[in-house]
Amino acid sequence: MDIRKSSLKYELLLLLMSIIWGSTFVAQQIGMAKGVGPMTYNGLRFLLGCLSLLPVILWRKKYVAPSEENSKLPVLGSLFAGLFLFGAASFQQIGLQYTTSANSGFITGFYILFVPLLGLFFRQKVPKSLWVAIPICLVGFYLLSVTSEFKISKGDVLTLACALLWACQILVIDHVASKGDSLQIAALQFGLCAVLSVLSGLVFEHCTLAQLKAASGAIAYGGLMSVGIGFTLQVICQKRCPPAPAAIIMSLEAVFAAIAGYLVLSQELTVRAIIGCVLIFVGVVMAQVLPLLRRTGGGDGKQ
């Protein structure tokens, strides 16, 4: 009973993380609506996220018993992850200028399908459920993004590219995560993403101090809440939650993006788009949860 209560606590924290991440799609759009360019927004957002992790890292080094793991930092692997993070975040942020929070949230979720597909190049096994999930998600994408004139918005295409780059970033993190402290790896990749984004903003964009001030709330939310608090909650909770419920809860990020888009920006979805969202959600959950259930013999948690 105590184990279940403890698990429920972390599942609720994961739910909070999904709410934060989902609502951040709206903050990203609000920031750009204030005149801040996508690269500048990302640069400031990830800079804040990086800085917000530094006190936690220093606290752990000082007050938590040091270990060989949290004293290491795989620099090269972290920088590669940062490059993919920069690409993924850039495509997503630029794409949000041409699509809705709901579309961006659900299409970004395709990274869950891309990860095992890219894993084929490294001779990783692919769960059979993926081959069922892919056509379900493709039908959902068609209903959500393809118009009656068989056109796809520029924003949805950019977001699909973002999902592919997220998958690459996840595979790199999967490779380096066991070689060092996850928070230090995150801080380094956030820092590189921030530097590259700020430099791109300086070259390609022009933002006034008045525009930055007007967007400061959206930038702070995207940096401190989404990157700082959201990532920290993920690191803390994922290791302590049963994997299948954790996967479902984290998939709700797209649902919360749609809800936030409707409540804050009045972005409505057609019946066709809603059906598409549901199909994508079902496919994504299938791809994550069914393999986990098979590994645990159909159980619902860690022993």
What this model shows, in words?
It is a single chain. Helix content is 78%, strand content 0%. It has one domain (2-128, 148-268). The longest helix is centred in the N-terminal third of the chain and has 32 residues, at 2-33. The protein is mainly alpha-helical. The radius of gyration is 19 Å and the shape is globular. The chain has 13 helices and no strands.
Could you say how many structural domains there are in total? 1
Radius of gyration: 19 Å
Q: Output the structural class.
A: mainly alpha
Q: Give the proportion of residues in helices.
A: over 70%
The total beta strand count reads: 0
Main sheet makeup: none
Strand content: under 5%
Ends apart, CA distance between termini: 13 Å
Low-confidence stretches: 298-303
The average pLDDT score comes to: 88
Supply the key terms.
303 residues; mainly alpha; 13 helices; 78% helix
Secondary-structure map:
Layout lengths: L1 H32 L4 H26 L11 H21 L5 H8 L2 H9 L8 H18 L8 H23 L5 H23 L4 H6 L1 H23 L4 H9 L1 H13 L5 H25 L8
Helix pairs in contact: 1-4, 1-10, 1-11, 1-12, 2-3, 2-8, 2-10, 3-7, 3-8, 4-7, 4-12, 5-7, 6-13, 11-13
Quick description:
With 303 residues, the chain is an all-alpha fold. It has helices spanning 2-33, 38-63, 75-95, 101-108, 111-119, 128-145, 154-176, 182-204, 209-214, 216-238, 243-251, 253-265, 271-295. The longest helix has 32 residues, at 2-33.
